[in-house]
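Duplicate of #3305? Posting structure anyway:
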């Protein structure tokens, strides 16, 4: 009997594609124990772009690594389309873009995108017959859309940080994951490079509609990119609130100065501030 394909899995309409329930994770023991995740619930519907934002050390990477199956929670569960994180990982359903791109230095940009495609492709858009399937299976087109058409034959050592990161993003999309997890991929980029990388990412995502969980510590970046923003707070790492972003797509940088944008940023700041300064219970 052949194993079930991701598209056969129990993902009824309306059920979350990525579901984290009551996840807890503590590093260390005794006085040195750090509660990185405390009863975290996260739901991401299929095809959504969700950002996770919060101050440094609040557990964003731990949450992302837990969804990826790279960390085991002490309690709670992770399901991706009904599968455990380990099962989803084995079925090549999960793509991961780390903060520092891990490119192979001896291969050029195109080679880095192609190197894993035969062995590791997950079967996301293609198996689902998604509209953007051609783009994911055409590395040159993908790289061109990400602004790398002129550097296909450069090696990582000849690229700027922004180009390296976009190569890593192209490689992740080319593997056609069902879920793409990105951990602050643009945090090391200067503001100008970052802005164009954000728009290029959105351009590709708009076509492929991969389910994305994107970690950032930039409020503006979270609003610009996302359908909803999950706000985390620290000590213990927990979800302080979720702010839905009902701005029209396609997004553009003109939005950054708009009243709508500021309104969303304000709401996120309020959630962050409330989490940092909880109202004291005065009896
Ligand atoms: P963020 O990504 O939001 O900056 P992390 O998930 O990396 O936060 O870390 C959350 C907390 O857990 C931090 O206090 C961090 O120091 C701690 N932590 C993360 N990974 C480990 C680890 N492998 N061992 C011990 N402590 C860790
Ligand atoms: Mg982190």
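Output from current build:
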């Amino acid at each position: 009997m052949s194993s079930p394909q991701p598209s056969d899995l129990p993902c009824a309409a309306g059920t979350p594609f990525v579901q984290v329930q009551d996840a807890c994770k503590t590093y260390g023991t005794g006085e040195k124990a750090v509660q990185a995740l405390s009863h975290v619930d996260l739901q991401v519907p299929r095809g959504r772009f969700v950002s996770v934002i919060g101050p440094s050390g609040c557990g964003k990477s731990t949450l992302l690594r837990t969804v990826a199956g790279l960390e085991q929670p002490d309690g709670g569960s992770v399901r991706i389309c009904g599968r455990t994180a380990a099962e989803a990982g084995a079925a090549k359903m999960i793509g991961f873009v780390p903060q520092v791109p891990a490119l192979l230095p001896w291969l050029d940009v195109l080679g880095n995108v192609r190197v894993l495609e035969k062995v590791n492709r997950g079967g996301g858009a293609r198996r689902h017959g998604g509209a953007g399937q051609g783009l994911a299976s055409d590395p040159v087109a993908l790289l061109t859309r990400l602004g790398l058409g002129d550097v296909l034959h450069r090696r990582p050592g000849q690229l700027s940080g922004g180009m390296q990161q976009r190569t890593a993003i192209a490689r992740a999309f080319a593997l056609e994951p069902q879920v793409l997890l990105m951990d602050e991929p643009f945090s090391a980029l200067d503001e100008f490079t970052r802005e164009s990388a954000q728009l290029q990412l959105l351009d590709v995502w708009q076509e492929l509609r991969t389910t994305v969980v994107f970690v950032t510590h930039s409020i503006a970046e979270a609003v610009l990119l996302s359908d909803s923003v999950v706000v985390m707070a620290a000590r213990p790492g927990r979800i302080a609130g979720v702010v839905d972003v009902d701005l029209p797509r396609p997004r553009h940088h003109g939005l950054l100065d708009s009243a709508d944008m500021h309104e969303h940023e304000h709401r996120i700041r309020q959630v962050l501030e409330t989490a940092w300064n909880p109202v004291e219970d005065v009896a």
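Confirmed duplicate; merging threads. Strands lie at 18-27, 34-44, 49-53, 75-80, 94-97, 179-183, 211-216, 228-233, 238-244. Residues 161 and 188 are 8 Å apart (CA to CA).
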